[in-house]
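User: Sequence in, structure out. Go.
Assistant: Echoing your sequence, followed by the structure tokens.
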Amino acid sequence: MSLKDFFYFAAVAWQLITAHTIEDCWMRGLTTAFSSNTTTESEQAKEPASVGSDSDDEEFLGLSAHEV
């Protein structure tokens, strides 16, 4: 197998990956980052007031070590 063959097979393999597959991978990896947008009211009641708040009045001061 030559270097040219390797690059050919790599190009063919990359073309077989659909945009949907890449999007799915990102969404699975980032599910926890977006989960606060889909929490129910009962789940939000259990969270501290600063987490999941949609108020624009609060200034973001960073994440605590626990949140990271």
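User: And one key feature?
Assistant: The helical segments are 3-16, 19-29, 31-34, 41-46.
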